[in-house]
Amino acid sequence: MPIIQIKDFIVATPQTTLFTIDSAIVQPMSKIALVAPNGSGKTTLIKQILADNKQVKITGDIGYLAQLESVKALSAGQYIKKRLTELLYGSAACLILDEPTANLDASTRKWLIMQLQRTNKALLLISHDRELLNAIATEIWYINDMQLQTYSGCYSDYLKMRASQAAKEIAAFEQQQTDRQRLKNVIHERKQRAQSIGHHKRNVSSSEAKANGLMSDYEAKGRKMAKSAKSITKRLEKEPLLKQPRKEKHINIQLKRTTTLNLRPIKLLDSTNQIIYREKQSIFEIKHFAVKFGEHIGLVGDNGSGKSTFLKQLFTTVVSGKPLTIYQYPKIKIGFFNQLLDDFPKGSSILHAIEQTSSQDKQVIYDLLGALGFRNTTMQKPYSVLSGGEKVRANLANVLLGDYNILFLDEPNNYLDLDALQALTTFLQAYRGAVILVSHDNEFINSICHRQYKIGNNKMHEINLNEDVSNPKKRFKKQQLTNQIQELEFKKDKLMLTTNSSIAEIRYLNQQISQLKKELS
């Protein structure tokens, strides 16, 4: 029996219809991915499925991981892993997971993929994580022309199908445009000839026309040309017009050089012999950390290692003078972004609000908002009515376009679709100011950052990016250690959820995991 049945359903906000569903079913043990660009209504659909709705029939318990759940004591990644563990070992027959790999480090991400592959629960995933989708999904729900459609197969095959479909749509549209233009040229030519015949007829006297037998021929030819032109015109009018396919647009956003973004490569921040604390507990030591104008620096490390804590404390110190002791450039201006940022400037619309605080031209603001997935209509909305994901992207755009000379960006790539991620990558690669970037996406951080610091084993150290990581023996050893850590964490998680588990056994597993992580680092 299906766990979820949806029939004749309209997914809508109070302002607009987003898409329709004729029929969609979640069967037991099915692994479904819901994929679509940002702002198309994926999270809205999930909320409406979970609400009491006559068009949605649910026959089993549903476990739900929301996209932006509030986090208190734990790091975002630790909190998400805790929630995922509760859901995976809970009683729900179906799990709906909205961006489950957001904020997860590489090892926890692999742990999650392994758990989802093993589970007998039905899954409905919303994600832009290609590795996750390729490893898990066997059915794809996607939105096309304001309608939910389904595809049976893995994610990579779905992408090939969509690419082929898009190529055919573009070819069909271009062929129709060529054919219509050719017919319009024929209409124009025949109308011209009909008019020419009529004009020639008027220049011939009646007696001459009769003498030469031309009158009837001219009239017949003229009528024939006019009739042919009219017939082709009607044919064009009746022909259904194909919708112009959407083509990918790669926008190159060039920030103008404001006074703030026109510095020499001077030192902006310098920290030496610091200990970073979280809730009065020391988490790691810094021997030396410095940033110059124009440098792009990455911060990497496991969930809970202290990356976000360090970024917050660095920002707070610049603003208030504590808790750290650092050198700071007197005219430093920091733009700080994290996923829970909710400090958007007031304005009649998000476009207007950003215009009020940014030194950039309106076209630059418009281009960046568009590249981050905002349609024209959404740009005109006030911040208060945006969805959670839209608010995150609006705050990101506001920070990127602000009058700053250094950006602190904590997981800015989370919840972005592939087009928006590419736009953000291109923007940061060209950004003239300094950047300190926290991310668990190695490809993203490697494409932007010139230098990287790793936090682990209670210390921060700079990574030698020229180190030979292509050595196959090293790579094999690293993979072995990662697999062992995942297996031990899997055992520990099961014990943690069992009320009569041995505390000594859990402690022993923790010691083994810590030792393996030291070897890995």
UniProtKB/TrEMBL annotation:
UniProt domain ABC transporter: residue ranges: 266-482
PROSITE patterns: ABC_TRANSPORTER_1 (PS00211), ABC_TRANSPORTER_2 (PS50893)
Pfam families reported for this sequence: ABC_tran, ABC_tran_Xtn
Molecular-function GO terms, alphabetical: ATP binding; ATP hydrolysis activity
Entry keyword annotation includes Repeat: yes
Alphabetized SMART domains for the sequence: AAA
Matches recorded under CDD domains: ABCF_EF-3
Matching InterPro entries: AAA+_ATPase, ABC_tran_Xtn, ABC_transporter-like_ATP-bd, ABC_transporter-like_CS, ABCF, P-loop_NTPase
Record keywords: ATP-binding, Nucleotide-binding, Repeat
Gene3D superfamilies in UniProt: P-loop containing nucleotide triphosphate hydrolases
PANTHER family in the record: ATP-BINDING TRANSPORT PROTEIN-RELATED, RIBOSOME PROTECTION PROTEIN VMLR
Protein's name according to its UniProt entry: ABC-F family ATP-binding cassette domain-containing protein
Organism: Periweissella fabalis
Lineage per the UniProt record: Bacteria, Bacillati, Bacillota, Bacilli, Lactobacillales
